[in-house]
Design goal:
This protein is an all-alpha fold and 280 residues long. It contains eleven helices and no strands. The chain has helices spanning 4-41, 47-51, 64-96, 100-114, 117-132, 137-161, 165-173, 178-205, 210-213, 233-242, 246-279. Helix 1 crosses helix 11.
């Protein structure tokens, strides 16, 4: 007959073992992915990748136009989505709180957070691309902004609600207007958390492909025009990886290597910022 203490000890050991195995299983696939990208990507990494545009099927070239296009579309999505998310999170944390309107905003934000990115791309396709009659970088930025907004909103609200109310009350007791309390005290106390939300939003959209298929599409040439199709790394990887040309396959590996390690670096930086904020 096994006593209660022995049974609990073995249950704890089994649970810990299952958790450790699950963690090792996930880390194994992550390590394999990174190893594969390094093996196939680093060998073809050269200065021409950053200085020349994408080549013709049997020509030589790089990823300059795709890198520039990705930076433009990602920057546009962040510039549109981050302010909206921060302002909406500010409303929920400082004004709405437990009101009915705040509950409705949180519900729709959760729906937007869980929505597949391809659905958001189709929505912007109908809303923007069909109206202007052609694919455009601006439409891609708007589609990516819809992904940034819920991430930024959720973290902004959570970080601002962690600021103690006594700080707001002390400022209000001195006659400071509410908008100054928010901008000079609450934002300052929660700035690391808000920045973390923005960086997580950027990391989320940097590798998105589905929304760009229906909005920005692609451009073989270097373009800075927001109202025309624009090259970008996710679409380039998709096209080049499926092509029968070896040169294009190599560039697809290089593009995947660049975008994966850029997102990985951004996530590590975000975790470092969050840890520093928590320790203050």
């Amino acid at each position: 007959m096994i006593d209660l203490y022995t049974r609990r000890r073995w249950t704890n050991r089994l649970t810990m073992g299952a958790a450790a195995l699950a963690t090792l299983f996930g880390l194994f696939w992550l390590a394999w992915l990174l190893f594969t990208l390094c093996v196939n990507g680093i060998g073809h990494l050269s200065w021409s990748v950053f200085s020349q545009p994408t080549p013709s099927p049997k020509g030589e070239g790089g990823l300059y136009n795709a890198i520039i296009g990705s930076l433009i579309v990602t920057g546009l999505g962040t510039a549109i989505g981050a302010p909206i998310g921060i302002l909406a999170g500010t409303y929920l944390a400082e004004y709405g709180r437990d009101s009915r309107l705040a509950a409705v905003v949180r519900f729709f934000n959760d729906v937007l957070l869980a929505a597949p990115s391809i659905v958001l791309g189709l929505f912007i396709y109908q809303l923007v691309v069909v109206q202007i009659g052609h694919f455009a970088a601006f439409a891609g930025g708007v589609a990516l902004a819809l992904i940034v907004i819920p991430v930024t909103l959720r973290l902004t609200e959570n970080m601002m609600r962690l600021v103690p109310d006594r700080m707001r009350e002390a400022a209000a007791a001195l006659g400071v207007p509410r908008w100054k309390v928010i901008t000079h005290i609450v934002y300052r106390a929660a700035k690391a958390g808000i920045a973390t939300g923005v960086l997580l939003g950027v990391a989320r959209i940097a590798g998105e492909t589905a929304p760009l298929l229906f909005t920005a599409l692609n451009n073989r040439f270097t373009s800075y025009d927001l109202w025309s199709p624009i090259a970008n790394l996710p679409i380039m990887i998709f096209r080049f990886a499926l092509s029968p040309y070896e040169g294009w396959n190599q560039l697809a590996w290089v593009g995947a290597f660049l975008i994966t390690f850029a997102i990985l670096g951004l996530n590590i930086f975000t975790r470092v910022v969050l840890r520093h904020s928590a320790s203050e």
